[in-house]
Amino acid sequence: MNAAADQPETHCADVPGGRVWPAVSIIMPVLDEERHLAEAVAGVMAQDYPGETELVLALGPSRDRTNEIARGLAAEDPRVRLVDNPAGRTPAGLNAALAAARHNIIVRVDGHGVLCEGYIRTAVQVLEQTGAANVGGIMHAEGQTDFEQAVARAYTSRFGLGGGRFHIGGEAGPADTVYLGVFRREVLDKLGGFDEHFQRAQDWELNHRIRAAGETVWFTPELSVRYRPRPDLRSLARQFLKTGQWRREVVRRYPETASPRYLAAPVVTAGVAGGTLAGLAAAVGAPGWLAIGWLAPAGYAAGVLVAGLSGGRGLPPRARAWLPGVLATMHLTWGTGFIIGVRPRQGARSPEALEHAPR
Description:
Layout: E1 24-30, H1 37-45, E2 53-59, H2 66-76, E3 80-84, H3 90-100, E4 105-108, E5 113-115, H4 119-130, E6 134-141, H5 146-155, H6 165-168, E7 173-174, E8 179-184, H7 185-191, H8 202-212, E9 217-227, H9 233-253, H10 260-283, H11 295-311, H12 317-340, H13 351-355
Parallel strand pairs: 1-2, 1-4, 2-3, 6-9
Antiparallel strand pairs: 4-8, 5-9, 6-8, 7-9
Helix pairs in contact: 5-12, 9-12, 10-11, 10-12, 11-12
């Protein structure tokens, strides 16, 4: 099987010209993105969009050369503007960039994502054709090392993240959420922008509020963004632990959003943990029947191994060998994060506060 055939296409549909195109602001929060920032900015600057564009980078307190690189990029291209994000958190950076943005269409981009050719042009046309408040497409995970290739495959596998359209593709139409997004500015202003309480999952939470306000979130497979996965197991585990914590926070605030897809990982994690504890208890003198608990982690390990090896067809041998461990890390850290949740944090700026922020 060809590995490339398993991945979503990374090109965008061509859109005819001959019209006046609205001005667009691209907003990008960046923190510790030394490795990928120049590539991400180049992907924005290379867009063939016929209208006026600007790119607003919200600079967090990076510990690497990210801000130095950003200043160099701004010096080279007057379309690149810089704003400060002293909090360093993604939603705070998005709101800071949004407050500085000058145009009525807002394109969100991350510092480790690369827009496909024609992304903005296609997104603007779909936004206008559908009347949606937000349109987005596919997060096309693409790894460079063997480990990153395994993570990228897990992202696009039904065994990895559950098969959402923005991971594996699908038909165009209304959606619960999309990757990143291209927004009508008036809707963001009306809703107060991104909720800074949500350090993760702020895009999902915003899209929920958009739909609750009677607006449409629209998915189209014509759009894709090349995403660079985490480079090692430790950073992947930290990412998914935090993602699980904040997805639990979304469910706490909006209980109606709980679904089998999001509850599967915490249920599996609890089962594996409970079975392991029961097996250990039997080994140190508790009733022998508790040893049956070992069936839970053993069954899960066997299932992940089979899923990883079957889902890794077409990958290089070392990447395929990584895949079962990557899947288990995603499932169990996400599930653990969901179970433990997050503590309330003081001082976050709410959407209502942003509503009154200076533009």
